[in-house]
Structures are given as structure tokens and as C-alpha cells.
Amino acid sequence: MVAAPAVEFRELSKRFPGVLALDRVSWTLAPGEIHALLGENGAGKSTLLRILAGDHRPDGGELVLPGTGVDVRTPADAHDARVRVIYQEPNLLMDRSVAENVLIGALPARRHLVDRRRLHELAAEQARRLGVDIDVTTRVRRLGPAARQLVEIMKALASDVRVLALDEPTSSLSGRETERLFAILRTLRSDGVGIVYVSHRLEEVREIADRATVMRDGRVVGTVSVASTTDAELIRMMIGRQISTVFATPDTHGDGRGDRGTPRLAVTELRTGSVGPVSLTVRAGEVVGIAGLVGSGRSKLVRALAGAEPLTGGEVRVDGRPVRSRGPSGAIAAGIAVCPEDRRALALVPDRSVRENILLGHRTVRPRLGFLRVRRREVDRVERYLRLLDIRPADPEARVRTLSGGNQQKVVLARWLAREPSVLILDEPTRGIDVGAKSEIYALIRRLTADGLAVLVVSSELVEVIGLADRVYVMRGGRVAGEVPRAEATEESLLTLALGTNQRSRP
Ligand SMILES: Nc1ncnc2c1ncn2[C@@H]1O[C@H](COP(=O)(O)OP(=O)(O)OP(=O)(O)O)[C@@H](O)[C@H]1O
Ligand SMILES: [Mg+2]
């Protein structure tokens, strides 16, 4: 590239207690390029962005922003140099409006008071400019994860930017919102903005990025042009080995398991709000998928099964017993564990240890065992799941806050698995999880079903549903549009049902 780089890292290192998160990283971002950062969970991607944002100080090396004359030591320095970083975790004021969050750096004032009318006008204008359909007077707390992500993006782009970095920005966006974001990024690119894009989804990287830098264990493995590098090559760079099959081999699927046939979860004519009637079963040892477009009722169905939405009709049975008591505690008592979609926001206590987070909500105190034995049992259980899910670092006492994003997700999965439920419902189970860990989680799900667990997987990634499920229910308009056995589940057959372009009815 001929132009001076927008950002240059020179031999930059960052150490945390017990881990070298960045090890002499040299890397450049050109103006007017979209540069993907790839790597396994814990590779150092978010740490690199935190240094760029001035939130972390490196222990060695230099960060240079040529032509700005700014030496980044604090977040304010990075801001002055027109560097904006959108983090993996939402970073918004929950009890403030969309408009206040977006314009927080430049609230319009009149006679020392915030000029609300002007504020709302400016924010609405910004939303229109970016093609975001949102009421700017709404409090952020009332928005779903996708809308919150869009607010983050509006906020980052509220003033002129030179460098924009996004850490897994699409993890809660729908396909249409992702396309919208990509259109915005392409415009910024043509305006000369340097863009850093962190993602675990290779197909996205392929669609949007010009170059990619792969990191592993805090080091740069290499920088490549995306167009001239295959997925297999990128994956090999990321994990240092080849993955032949991401999904458990077919011979572990299907028949051959003892007590299949007993429905563990039976949902009959369930209704909640505009969703229903929905009937479905999940048998012992079975993985059942739910596919459907955003808005098809998938998430609402899951919330109803979790006890978070009231049923307006129908019945849910676990192992033949109707779930009678209402609310989340009723579902849990009945043996249903739901690993929610919005895991980071809903589910973790960042300043507590991994052990405490896994055991959260467990009733493990058995007085007759005595404190020390209870404690021993807890520790054993936690260590088992640290191992099963390959959570890194494998230290039960590490604060969750210090784990990488993907490892935090695994902690939430561990919590639900540790409850040893009858029915496990996974909503988007591998969002934010790297390819290597993904295939481990798929294998784990398979192993758990071999012990008789019934699993319901809701995912917007069709490949995931197809790869995992023995059977797939496809939802459309709040109802089950069809049921597809594993042998017939292809992206095409599922999409056809989800879109309703043919009139195949429920068997
Ligand atoms: N505040 C912290 N204290 C201690 N260790 C930390 C802290 N922040 C990050 N780490 C460690 O630094 C390493 C790199 O983490 P980082 O968050 O940069 O990974 P990542 O590549 O973004 O992973 P992911 O894909 O899971 O988000 C990990 O080993 C992580 O546990
Ligand atoms: Mg990260």
C-alpha cells in the first residue's frame, strides 16, 4: 500500500497476570481498507482493540497513528485522533434514551440545559442517515440486543471517524441488519476510513473484508488478502491444525441409542401472544433443531418454554409431567434449562469467579455432608465443566471479567449443563465461539444426548441446525411450518419452508 498507514502497531506487547495477551504484535491498518482480525477465543483480538482505544496501556512497543500527532495514552487521546472502537460487550447507559447515548459526547445545550428537541432531531437524523429504524426517545434498557448494537454503531459514527474498529458487531444482528451495517462500512471505506473487523464468521469476512490478519496465542500468524486465501487456509492459520469435520460424525447420530422414543419434552398446542398453536416433541437422546427467520416466533417460543412469557394456551410436559408452576423457576424445577440468546447481558456476574458463575442458582448445599465436602463436590463439578468445554484459563477462581468473550460464553453454557437438566434448550449456542471450540461444543452436545438428555437447538445459522439436529422444526409466522428429518434437511429445504414459498404442510 502506498498511503501512510492509518494505524501502526510496532512490536506491541500486553501482559495480564499469568498470560501474555499480545506478544510483540506488529500490524498495520491502511486507510480505506476493511481489515479482518481472526483467531481463536483468547487469541488477543479484543486486547488489541482495547489498546487501540486507549483503554489498556501496552507493556512494550508502540502504537502509532501517523499524521495525527496524537500519542494514545488514554481513551480521550484515541477519541481526539478520531478512533472509535465498538466493543464486544454493550457499553451503553441503560436508563438513558437512544438519543442521549448516541450524542453523549456532544449533547446540544440551550441556556445550560440539554436541548431535548434538538437532541432528538439530531439523533433521528443520524438514524435516518444510517438507515436504522429506531425511536430515538426510547430508553436503551427497553431495546433488544440487535437494537442496542445498532445504537452502539450510531454512537460511534455520531462524529467524524478516521479509524473504526468493531468487535463481533453482527453477533446479535439479523441478516438484513447485517447487510445494512455492511453498506455503511462500504461507504466509510470509500471515504478513506480504516476499518478493523473482528468476527468468527468466515463467510462475513469473505463478504466484507479486503485483508485479514490471523492471531494465535497473542501473536500475529500472518496477514493475507481475503480473496486469495481459502477458508481451509484461514482455519489452519487460526487453530494450527486442520478441521475435517466440524460436526460429530453421522454414525453417532440417529438410531442405536437405547431409550429413544420416550418424549422428554412434549409441547401441545402452546400459545403465547401471537405465537401458536405450536406442538412439538423432543425425545430422550435426540437433538431437535428449530429454524426460522427472525420474527418467525423462534425466540418467543423459547422464552415461553423458559417460563419468561406467559402461556395463553396449551401445555408443556417434561417426562410426562405437566409443567404447572409458572415463571422461570417453574421451568427450572421441571427440569428445563434454557441457555438464553443474550448471554453476556443476562447471564453473567463479571466480577465473580468462574466457579461462582457456574454454580449460580444451584442448590447444592446438603447440610448432612458438611461444608468441606459440599465445597469439594462443587469444585469437582466446576472442574469437570472447565475441562469438558475447554474453558481457558482453566482456573475456577479467575474473575469472569478477565476471560475472553468466547470463553465467557462457554461459562454460561457450563452453568446450564451443570444443572444436569432433562431438557436443554440452547438459543444460538455457538455465537461468538471460534471454529475449533464450536466443533468441540457440537461433539459435547452429542455426548450429552447419548446419556439421554433431550436437546432443543434454536439457531439462525442453518448449517448449525443441519449439522446438529436429528429433526428440524421450521417456524414461520408464529407456527410450525413443517418438520424435516435429518436426511432431508438442507439449506434449501429449510429456507423454502421458512420463507413459505411452497405449501408443504405439517406432517
Ligand atoms: N483484564 C484482563 N485480565 C486478565 N486477563 C485478561 C484480561 N483481558 C483479557 N485477558 C486474557 O488475555 C487473553 C486474550 O484475550 P482477548 O479478550 O483479547 O481474546 P479474543 O481474541 O478477543 O477472544 P474471543 O474471540 O473469545 O473474544 C486471554 O487469555 C484472556 O483471558
Ligand atoms: Mg474478544
From TrEMBL:
<protein>
    <submittedName>
        <fullName>Sugar ABC transporter ATP-binding protein</fullName>
    </submittedName>
</protein>
<keyword id="KW-0547">Nucleotide-binding</keyword>
<dbReference type="InterPro" id="IPR050107">
    <property type="entry name" value="ABC_carbohydrate_import_ATPase"/>
</dbReference>
<dbReference type="InterPro" id="IPR003439">
    <property type="entry name" value="ABC_transporter-like_ATP-bd"/>
</dbReference>
<keyword id="KW-0067">ATP-binding</keyword>
<feature type="domain" description="ABC transporter">
    <location>
        <begin position="260"/>
        <end position="502"/>
    </location>
</feature>
<dbReference type="InterPro" id="IPR027417">
    <property type="entry name" value="P-loop_NTPase"/>
</dbReference>
<dbReference type="GO" id="GO:0016887">
    <property type="term" value="F:ATP hydrolysis activity"/>
</dbReference>
<dbReference type="InterPro" id="IPR003593">
    <property type="entry name" value="AAA+_ATPase"/>
</dbReference>
<keyword id="KW-0677">Repeat</keyword>
<feature type="domain" description="ABC transporter">
    <location>
        <begin position="7"/>
        <end position="242"/>
    </location>
</feature>
<keyword id="KW-0813">Transport</keyword>
<dbReference type="GO" id="GO:0005524">
    <property type="term" value="F:ATP binding"/>
</dbReference>
<dbReference type="Pfam" id="PF00005">
    <property type="entry name" value="ABC_tran"/>
</dbReference>
<dbReference type="InterPro" id="IPR017871">
    <property type="entry name" value="ABC_transporter-like_CS"/>
</dbReference>
